[in-house]
Automatic annotation (TrEMBL):
Gene3D superfamilies hit by this protein: Aldolase class I
One matching Pfam family: TAL_FSA
Organism expressing this protein natively: Sphingomonas olei
Catalytic activity: D-sedoheptulose 7-phosphate + D-glyceraldehyde 3-phosphate = D-erythrose 4-phosphate + beta-D-fructose 6-phosphate
Protein name: Transaldolase
Active site: 141 (schiff-base intermediate with substrate)
Amino acid sequence: MGKLNDLAGAGQAVWLDFVDRKFLEAGGLQKLVDEDGVTGVTSNPTIFQKAMGEGTAYDQTLGAFDKANPGASAMDRYEHLAIQDIKAAAETLRPVYDRLNGKDGYVSLEVSPYLANDTDGTIAEAQKLWAAVDRPNLMIKIPGTPAGVPAIAATIANGINVNVTLLFSQESYQAVALAYVEGLELRVSRGEPIDRIASVASFFISRIDAEIDKKIDALIEKGGATAEEAKALKGKVAIANAKLAYAWYQDFIASDRWQALAAKGAQPQRLLWASTGTKNPDYPDTLYVDTLIGPDTVNTMPPKTLDAYRERGTARVTLTEDLDGARKVLADADRLGLDLPGVTERLVEEGVASFSKSFDDLLGSIEAKHPADA
């Protein structure tokens, strides 16, 4: 039992933010499950673009699909490949799902990023992907955009597990947490079970500091009285933001509204820390793991962060430490004009655009591949 396994003792699940055909076929995920206690997998268009768009690992499967489905669109070809990977990951994680009685063991598949501002399209695609994968330990990823919020409620009401992605602000997180509850309440009103429905709210971390730190560096360069104050905030704003989101979660699950659902077997929507690889080389590479450990949370880590934590992580509950300090960090950031609300709003837009660009590249790569003709 290593340091990654120790996180479970602090109430935090470890997921892998990576999926790749060669990795799955070589037993890489199974090894992480067996040795490090990994209990879930996340994917996104950027991960699939790197996996499918480079090399020949998918060519045999794609060639067979093309022969059976001549003239298939790039989207259909992509979905065929992605669904196979997601099914394979789900099968690897199924014993975890069964052992934990549906509390964990999930793999996530994202709706098309082109639908980020299309509520009805998102609902329809979630249903289509859920039926295509046909595994109870699947989560459909839906962005926490204004259009995504009602889609989340509807998808939960349809009995589909949801991973809400691209959350940066506390307000956006609260909106999707309430959407999850609304979906569960609708099922209860119809006499439908809610005890096997799961959701996570993916709250992004390092991207916030990357943007805020640019603003801090500009203040430092200007010099003057605020330079030292600004410098003291480097690498702290994203963590403070996450801690206060979790504080809201703790208050909410103690509320009468949530307790009424819990009495019927509802699982809490866990906060999932995403974008936890550090982007600033001056920061410890385990910074966004060590500082965000707490019960009923998930940390999805890219392979490099997973390796770093295995070597030198420290598992103790840190998420609830010094909340007054976290409030002061955000108050100071506001006073110094770092504009966290503006940064988080822009990051959502940039995240959707980035995933759409990755999807463009992915579909272009698949369009260019014709292994059946080789």
